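Fold in tokens:
===
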Amino acid sequence: MKPILEHLPLDAKESFVVKYFDYHYYPTPWHFHPEYELVLVTESTGKRFIGDCITDFKPGDLAFIGPYLPHLYRNDAEYYEERAELRAKSIVVHFLESSFSPGFFTLPESKKLLDFFEKSQRGFNVTGKTNKIISRKMHELCESEGLTRWIRLLDILNILSSSKDLNFISNAVVHGKNDSESERLNLVINFVMENFKREIMVDEAAMLVSMAPNSFSRYFTQRTRKTFTAFVNSVRLNHACKLLIESQLPVTEICFESGFNNLANFNRHFRASYKTTPFHYRKTMIG
């Protein structure tokens, strides 16, 4: 996907950005930026697109995103309804290596941080005990100023660089590029998220962005490392997993609610992605 370049401006008195966001829904489209990003979801649910990975997010979701790694947090459908009283809240930290002194990363003590930054090109999920510690420290960071604020960021990064509670997010390194195609891909993402419960044809998506079907298919695959059909099925399977965990709906109903046209097709795609059946997935996740 070709994302847009995003920039959060620095205040004159700061070397990095810390923002507490409170929206009706997260408004930022598929985007990237040269800064490292640490993002903690404090309120709301939805789907998270980072690199080539699609997962659900909920309060407590904590991710570290490397420079130029495209990402998008899209809330569930009810957040976009007129008069919805739901809120989408998060704490976001943006910083560059230049947020530290010029010679900082030549110090032997900073080698571990440099290794961590290099690996962050695929993004990290932060889980377990580290998630709880960093989440608390991010709230403290929002309330800090001056040198205390800078020291607290360094403390957070030091903990992350030593943690074993980190898992890669994107299966491959994906770099964003800033060009005129960003709006086109955002249209496709929104279209899929709003229509995945019904049959979606490639021709429909191609028409939406004024492209011939064959050209659109090549274009989409080159930028997402997935065919359009595989992308749609990923969104459907992700929604199915959420329903299997959070609802009491029978598997057959979840199959159709997630956009699959028959149970055999649903089971085949589910097993291919998760190496188990929907029934056993639910049993494993909720006991």
